[in-house]
Amino acid sequence: MPFTFSALPDAPKAARRPATITVHGTDLHDDYGWLRADNWQEAMRAPDRLPADIAAYLTAENAYYDRAMADTTDLQARLVAEMRGRIKEDDSSVPRPNGPYAYGVRYDDGAEYPVFVRTPREGGTAEVMLDVNAVAAAENYFQLGTTEVSPDHRTLAWAADVNGSEFHRLTFRDLTTGADLDYHISDVGSVAWADGRTLLYVRVDARHHPNQVYRHTLGTDPATDVLVYTEADTRYHVGVHRLRSGAFVAISTGMNDENEISVIPTADPTAAPQVIEPRTTGLEYDIEHQGDAFLILTNADGAQDFKVMTAPVATPARDHWTDLIPHEEGRMIVGIAAYRDWTIWTERRNALPRICYVRADEPISAARSIAFDEEAYSLGSDPSPEYDTDSFRFTYSSPTTPGQVYDYDLSTGMRRLRKTTEIPSGHDPADYVTVRTAAPSHDGALVPVTILYHKNTRLDGKAPCLLYGYGSYGASMPASFSANRLSLVNRGFIYAIAHVRGGEELGRNWYEAAKFGGKPNTFHDFIAVARQLIADRYTDRGRIVIQGGSAGGLLVGAALNMAPELWAGAIADVPFVDVLTTILDDTLPLTPGEWSQWGNPIESRQAFDDIRGYSPYDNVTMQAYPPILVTAGVSDPRVTYWEPAKWVARLRALKTDENILMLRTNMTSGHFGRSGRFAALEDAARSYAFALKAVGADLSST
C-alpha cells in the first residue's frame, strides 16, 4: 500500500535564543543565529571541534532523518545497486596526446577513485602516475583537486582536500621515480607551471579567500617562495593558469561580473605581471594567445552576449583591441580556444550550444560549425592541450543519449567517435522521449523546459514529476544524460529541467533579468514551468517534487514559500536560504564577491529591501508546507551549514502542517557531499527514495 509522509513524533526542536540587529532602521529578529559556531573556521577544517550544543542539535536531526527514512532502507539499497549497475567499473578515458605521451585515467573494477596513467605516444607500456585510491585509503573523505604535469613531463603537481573544506594540500611527484617529494604546500588553490622547475600557485587565506600568488622553485623550501601578487579587494578571487601556447602564465582576478588579467612570460617567470587591461566596472574578459596576438573574449563596448577581439602581444591594452568575432544579440559566446592555426569558440542560441571554428588566416565569414540533430542536447568543449594541432575534442550527450567523445579534424571536417559511455546493465535510447518546450512566465517571458520520460509513461496528468532548477550566476543547465536519473524515469516519473532566468540559456539578458531586484523572476519562472507541466498533462498539482542545490536551494526555498500547494515534496541540497544574513556579513569568504549578484544590503536600502523580500529564511510563514528534505555539510565553505540548519529550525517552529521536515547534515564533508564514484550514489539514492515516498509510491515494490 502507498505510504504517507507525515512527521514523526518528537522531532528535534532547536532552542530559541532571540537576537536582534538593526539595519537601515529595520529590526531583524533571529531566534537561531546561535547555530553559527564562533569557531566555524576551525570546525570547517576539523568538524569534531564543533561546539557541543550545535553538534548535539545536528546529530539529533540526523537521527530523526534516519527514523523517518527507515522504511526506505531496502529501496535505497535497490537504487544504489541499479545506479551502480549503470557504471562500467573497469573504465578508462580516451587517451589525450600531449608531447611525448598520451595521458588518461582509468578506473579499476570496484575502485572509488581514478588512476592517472600515461603511455608513450608511439605506443608502449602504460605508466601509473597517480593511483588516487592508494593516497585516499587512509582518509574518511578525499577529493582530488588540481593535477598538472610540468612542461618537461617529469613532475606531477597534485592537490587534495581531505575534509570537504576545500583547503587543498599541494604535493609534487617525481614521475621518474614515482615518489612524492618530501614536502607539501598547504591551502593551495590553482597552480600553473611556467617551466619544468618553476610553478606559480594561489594561496587561500583563513577566510577561504584565494588572494595571493606565489612562485615556487621545485625542491626548495616553500617558506622561501616569492610573493608575486596580492589581491587586496575581498570581492576578487585569484586564479592562475598556463595558456595553451605555453608562452604565458595568466593571473586572473575577479568576481562574477568583473575581472582583470595579467600575464607573465614563461621564458622569464621572474618577470613582473603585465596587466592586459585594468579592472573596470562591468568589464569582463578572458584571453588566449595566438602568434603575435591575444584573443580576447569580452563584453566590452556593450557586447552583452560577448564578442571576440584581438590585441597585439606587445600592446595588449584595451585601446588596441579590435573586433574579430562581432557581437550578435541572442548568440552567447561562452568560450574560446586558440591553436596555432585555428580559432575555436562555443556559442549558445535558444538554449542549445554549438561549436564553431575558423582558420587563423581566414576571415570570420569562413567559419564553420559542428551540427547535431537532437531536439535537446549538451556539448562539452575539450580542446587539445597542444598548441600546434588540427585535432579538437568534444563531448556530446542528450537526456536519452549517453555521453560520447569525439575527435574532430578541423582541416577535413571529419569527426571520429572515440567512446560512448557504456551502460553495463543496458540502455536503449528508443525507450525514452525528450521534449523541449517553453512555459510563459508571469511577465510573458517564455521559459525553456527540457522534459524526459519513459515511452510507456502515460501523459494523462497523473504521473509524478521531479522538477529541477538552478538559476544563478549565469550558469546554464545542460540538457545532458544522467544514468542516475533513469532510476526515477523508469519508475514513471517525468523529469523536467526548468531553464529559468538567472542562467544564460537565452543569452546574457536571461541572466541579467534575474539579478538584484529582478531575482524573483527566477522563482516566478520555476513556478510557471510547474503550472505549464500541469496544463500540458505531464503531471498534476501535488505530484511534483522540486529539487535544487546551493543557489538552486534558494530557488526551492522561495518556491516553497510562494506556492507550497503545488508540490508533493522538496529536496533542498546545501541550500543558500539565509540570504539576507549572509549577504550582510562581509566577514564570510564569498560575501563581498556576491554583491554584484544580489546587491550590497549593507550600503543600499534598496538591496536590503529586495533581498529581504525573497530570502527564504526571512519569509517562512505560518502556512502548510509539503514534505521537505534538506541537506548540509559541516565543512562546506560555500553554503555554511548553519544556513540550512537555521531554515529547518524556523520552518519547524512556524509551519502548520503535519508533513515531514528533515535535515541531514554530513558531519565529515562539505558542499559536494560524499567523495568517490560509488559512495556518491548513496546521496542520490536518498534523494530519489524521498521523492518516491513523497508521491506515495509503494516502497515495497518500487
UniProtKB/TrEMBL annotation:
Q: Which SUPFAM superfamilies match?
A: alpha/beta-Hydrolases, Peptidase/esterase 'gauge' domain
Domain Peptidase S9 prolyl oligopeptidase catalytic intervals: 480-696
Q: What is this protein called?
A: Oligopeptidase B Serine peptidase. MEROPS family S09A
Signal peptide range in chain numbering: none
- Location of the Peptidase S9A N-terminal domain: 12-419
InterPro entries from the entry?
AB_hydrolase_fold, Pept_S9A_N, Peptidase_S9_cat, Peptidase_S9A, Serine_Peptidase_S9A
Q: Name one GO biological process term.
A: proteolysis
Gene3D superfamilies reported for this sequence: alpha/beta hydrolase, Prolyl oligopeptidase, N-terminal domain
The entry's keywords: Hydrolase, Protease, Serine protease
* Transmembrane stretches, start-end: none
Membership in a protein family = Belongs to the peptidase S9A family.
Highest taxon of source:
Bacteria
Question: What organism is the protein native to?
Answer: Loktanella atrilutea
Q: Name one GO molecular function term.
A: serine-type endopeptidase activity
